[in-house]
Amino acid sequence: MPTPLSLPAVALVKATVPALEAHGLTITHRMYERLFKNVEMRDLFNQSHHGEAGSQPKALAQAVLAYARNIDKLSALSGAVERIIQRHVALNILPEHYPYVGEALLGAIQEVLGEAATPEICAAWGEAYWFLAELLIGREAAIYRDLATRPGGWNGWREFVVESVLTESETIRSFVLVPADGRAVLRHEPGQYLGLQLDPPGHGVLKRNYSISCAPNDRAYRITVKREGHAGRPAGVVSNWLHDQAHPGTLLKVAPPAGEFFLDRKDDGPVVLVSGGVGLTPMISMLETIADATPGRPTWYVHSALHGRVHAMRDHAQTLVAGNEALQLHTFYSEPSEHDRRGRHYDTHGRITADWLVGHTPHEHATYYLCGPKPFLAALVNGLLRLGVPTERVRFEFFGPADELIEQQRHAA
Asked: Which end of the chain is more exposed for a tag (fewer CB within 10 A), N or C?
């Protein structure tokens, strides 16, 4: 355990809250500019989340502000801290990386705040940074030990082979990955993701996280990837490379499963799985697991897509629930095509709303698992909380950094 923060440091960090409210985003932009001068550190991060329009600097600014506001009651941040830890594990963040981040952050605070960043303020933030860093390092070390010692487990990057590729829709493909060494894989928790490290020509080392879209097993993982943007656009480099270049036999470097968003298999109460677009990937993992291991557990799977051409794994989901009264499937199409048939391809024309969920699922007892784009989640997460579903029964995952959605949920709760 790290040395407890001193009372003077706590007071000084809390005193910087107004400055962080005014200048936090500038500080985090400058921090990343400093940090990325080191190529090794730059390659640890998903660059599509950075830059002037990137979401990561905003997410970090809000995290730093939340830390300052709650530094005397850090238990309020336990969920956010665990999310950070799980992301670090997927990226193989190690203790030797932390000094670089600390130096960049403190340097950015001094640069942006100028004379207001007194030696006392800087010393307090240095103490606060290393207190949190030691917490993260300790928890991450425990996770790394656990991952390495469990059946099929490993640390760092392990070579996997693409065994097969399946076209799921016009924009989505699935890739089944098996270990190159032929040994077993670690059984993931349904809802977790894998970290991938690739080196596409002309782009340097890139890292991405992709949810596992199959039930836990000892042999393989399946990831289901949407082609983002267009070929050549930074935001779509990895997904486009996978769609265009990955084929049976392609080697990929893969980190162990990570993530704090997963199905609670110890609870046998009703669950409602809710997804939008490619957010279906962790939900299919959960639905496969329920259908196989606890088929009597009352389950509702509610999915939203634009239309049938982009609706991935539709037939697979229908097969999983077929003939089982405990498993219910309901699909929304917001823009059904002339070829989409209500009652066969989809059930409702429109978008999922929190009011619909509360009216059609057992909201008094169910736990809701949600995954999809940020606007989709912001509306549904906050809507469910507004309609009285307890915070502990609304669990969600999204792709990219946590920023305004976390703030919205915190205030709604």
From this structure: N
Report the distance separating Cα 247 and Cα 175, nearest Å: 8
| 271-412: CATH topology | Rossmann fold (3.40.50)
Can you say how many angstroms the Cα of residue 53 is from the centroid of all Cα atoms in its chain? 19
Domain ranges (residues) in the chain? 7-149, 158-258, 271-412
d(C-alpha 118, C-alpha 387), whole Å: 47
CATH architecture entry for 158-258: Beta Barrel (2.40)
Calpha distance 119→243 (Å, rounded): 52
187/369 Cα distance (integer angstroms): 20
How many helices (H) and strands (E) would you count in the chain? Answer: 13, 12
Report the half-sphere exposure of 108 (CA within 13 A, side-chain side). 25
Query: Is residue 98 annotated as part of the catalytic site, yes or no?
Result: yes
Taking the model in full, what pTM does it have?
0.89
- Interval 255-311: pLDDT, tens: 999 999 999 999 999 999 999 999 999 999 999 999 999 999 999 999 999 999 999
Distance from C-alpha of 176 to C-alpha of 244, rounded to nearest angstrom: 16
| Catalytic (active site) residue 228 | no
187: left (phi over 0), alpha (psi -120 to 50) or beta: beta
- The catalytic residue among 140, 189, 228, 397 is 140
Name 249's Cβ contacts closer than 8 Å, sequence gap at least 6: 161, 162
Q: Catalytic pick from 98, 193, 333, 346?
A: 98
Q: In this structure, what token pair is assigned to residue 96?
A: 């030797």
Partnered with residue 276 across adjacent β-strands are 304
